[in-house]
Here is the input.
Amino acid sequence: MTIKTFTAIALCTASMFAVAQTPAMNKAEYDAAKDRIEMNYKTAKKSCDAMKDNAKDVCQVEAKGTEKVEKAELERKYKTTAANARKFEEAKADSTYDIAKEKCEDQAGDAQKVCKADAKAVHERAKTAAKGKA
Here is the structure.
């Protein structure tokens, strides 16, 4: 290994370590982002009011899921811990599952049962993967 290669690797490693130690955002940025997420949720939920039946339900579940995922991502960025990374992955899995479950309501009988079973299986795999990342 040449001295140039070693120096390049050392600089790259040092900069990665410095980035990992630097807080992603301060409290004011965190609060502003949290307010923006809540405002976006209210706007998204209000847009569901024009819909009917299960489409309205799906829209509302999507809005709530997006809010939960964005808040979990905000926490992950604000406090970079393994636990917050896992919570973010779990929030994504839960949101996807809730939306899929609600979309299954458009089906009937056995098709609905199969749809919900498939959604649950995907959810379980995603939750297991999220726990493995912790």
User: Anything to note?
Assistant: Residues 5-22 have pLDDT under 50 and may be disordered.
